[in-house]
Amino acid sequence: MYSLESHLVNDFTDYIQNPRNLFSISNFAFEFDYRNGRVDVICQSGKGYLLSFEAKLYDWKKALNQAYRNTCFSHYSYVLLPKKMVPKVKNYYQEFRRRNVGLCSMNNQKAYIEIPASKRKPIQPWLTESAINHILNG
Q1: Is the dihedral of CA 69, 85, 40, 4 positive or negative?
Q2: Where on the phi/psi map is residue 100: left (φ > 0), alpha (ψ -120 to 50), or beta?
Q3: DSSP bridge pairs for 111
């Protein structure tokens, strides 16, 4: 189990740097700040889509609300939890689907997609561009 959220995020970013990761990530950045919040990890896929990940050790409800907020600029938005937390969330899968938010888990430096995120057209494309610039320019 992870003792700090930063350990979970570090394992995840180590994982997505592998060319054979589940998400086909080409670039990523930490903590994109925007008016409504700060995203733990944002990524750009090889196809140019923007993915956002909200990591939490326990408070998946807070992460779900944050991930839902991120759908305004992300093509795909996920909650990232330790694998051990997934059974506690199973009864709420419908809420993830209703909000078009995916659920990803980490265990032993490997990521699992528990619920695939639905692709969305961002309603704030200017913010999408800002996030991609954050990834590319740091």
Answers
A1: positive
A2: left
A3: 106
Token code pair at residue 100 = 């078009």
Q: Percent of the chain scored above 70 by pLDDT?
A: 100
The CA distance from 137 to 48, in Å, is: 15
Q: How far apart are CA 124 and CA 70, in angstroms?
A: 10
Distance CA 136, CA 138 (A): 6
> What does the pLDDT average to over 83-101?
95
**Mean pLDDT over all residues of the chain?**
92
User: Residue 9: its pLDDT value, please?
Assistant: 94
Task: Say what the pTM is.
Answer: 0.93
| Rg, C-alpha atoms of the chain | 14
What is residue 112's DSSP assignment?
E
pLDDT at 59 (0 to 100):
96
Domains delineated in the chain: 5-137 (3.40.1350)
- Closest by CA to 135, choosing from 57, 46, 12, 18, is 46
Reduced to 3 states (helix: H, G, I; strand: E, B; else coil), residue 45 is strand
In this structure, the number of other CB atoms found within 10 A of the CB of residue 39 comes to 26
